[in-house]
Each structure stands twice: as C-alpha cells, then as structure tokens.
Design brief:
Blueprint: H1 4-19, E1 24-30, E2 37-43, E3 47-70, E4 75-102, E5 106-125, H2 131-139, E6 142-156, E7 161-186, E8 191-205, E9 208-217
Antiparallel strand pairs: 1-2, 1-9, 2-3, 3-4, 4-5, 5-6, 6-7, 7-8, 7-9
Length: about 220
C-alpha cells in the first residue's frame, strides 16, 4: 500500500516532468531565528510543486577530571574522562502551493508540505568503546516524519521578485520501537519461560508557525 508521502512524491515528479517547459521556475528563501528553509518550485497555472531541504547539525563535548579511589590499584588516583557527541538531521521536504486568488501584485495561496527526517549521530566515550555502535543501533529504531499546512500571501515588487508571508501549523510525529528476549521465572513450577518484550514510544508535536519568504521567479 502506497503511503500519502509516496503518492505525493510520485505526483510531484510527474507534474514537474510533464509541465516543466511551460512552468515558472522559482527559488525561495525563508530567513529567521527558527529553522530556516530554501526551496525550489515550478509554478503551473495555480499550482506550484516545490522541493526543499533542511540540514541540522550539532555537537557537544564534556571533559571530567579530578581524583577518585581506584579499587584496582587500591589507591586514590587522578582521572580524566572525555565525552563528545555530534548529530546530523537531514530533512528533505516536498509540497504543493495552490494559488486560489491572483492579481498583478498580490497572490493568496494555501500550502501543504511533508518531510521525512533522516538522523545520524556519533559518540566518542573514553569509558565505553562500544558507545558509537550502541548509538547507531538506537538511531535505526527511531522514525520521524512531519508536515505542515498553511495559508499565505505573496506581494510582487516586479514580475520576478516577491515577498511572501505565511502562517500555519506544523505536525511532527516520532516513534521508537525495540524488542528483546526475556526469561520469566515461575516460582510455582520452578521453571523459566522465554518471552519477548516489545517497547514502543510515540511522540507528537503540533506547533503553529509564521514565516516571511523571499521569492525569485526566473520567468513570468
């Protein structure tokens, strides 16, 4: 069964290839203090499919040092432990804008976007040489998807350049699944029974958003 994300992807690809000759190619940038975005689109009549990407990177480190008792040598010793964490999130975005009212200077539109978040990370832990492989196993079990629905306007200073404003709601959904084998002891029989424990964690967030975009059309 095809997912809505896959159906929209196929639709946009077909639309881009079938209408690219008669479409307007555009580039948009949305600056701000929140997550910024740059996207490309093809406008055909009242519909503009678009594609964008967001990339988030981050890192942090911690060093702990001092003195402590070492049971191996039976004495107080100096110690230093180092931890370094880094992460990368790549978010390709596909969507549609529908212009239901247009004039020479002003356009009004609705928009819908979908995204799938691809996460990777790295850990350097001086106390655990297997920390990085454990993190990779954890990341594989995390699934994050999102989308947004909004309403906006676009004002054209000339036929190639416009400024837009948009307001809407974002939807983020994440889940984590894990399973492992477990042995359950029955004191009545004195026997153990093998069992499988399934763990699933779901998280969702639906904040509103507002943004200003700078748009350039290569043809009009």
């Amino acid at each position: 069964m095809k997912t809505p994300f896959l159906n929209l992807s196929i639709f946009i690809v077909l639309l881009l290839f079938s209408n690219s000759i008669y479409s307007q190619f555009s580039f948009s940038v949305s600056p701000g203090i929140q997550i910024n975005n740059a996207s490309f689109g093809f406008k055909k009549n009242k519909i503009k499919p678009n594609f964008g990407i967001q990339i988030l990177t981050g890192s942090t480190s911690l060093t702990e040092s001092g003195k402590r008792y070492d049971y191996d040598v039976q004495d107080i010793v100096n110690y230093e432990e180092k931890y370094k964490y880094s992460g990368l999130a790549i978010m390709p975005i596909i969507g549609l804008q529908y212009y239901f009212k247009e004039s020479e200077k002003l356009s009004v539109f609705t928009t819908i976007n979908f995204t799938k978040v691809f996460i990777s990370g790295k850990i350097e832990d001086s106390t655990n040489p297997n920390a990085n492989s454990e993190l990779n196993d954890l990341v594989k079990k995390v699934n994050v998807v999102g989308g947004q629905v909004g309403f906006g306007t676009e004002y054209f200073f000339d036929k190639y350049f416009s400024v837009g404003g948009e307001f809407g709601i974002r939807i983020f959904y994440a889940n984590y699944t894990e399973e492992h084998n477990h042995s359950v002891y029955n004191p009545n029989t004195g026997e153990s029974v093998d069992s499988k424990i399934n763990f699933k964690y779901n998280f969702s967030m639906n904040p509103t958003y507002s943004k200003i975009s700078l748009n350039y059309y290569f043809s009009k």
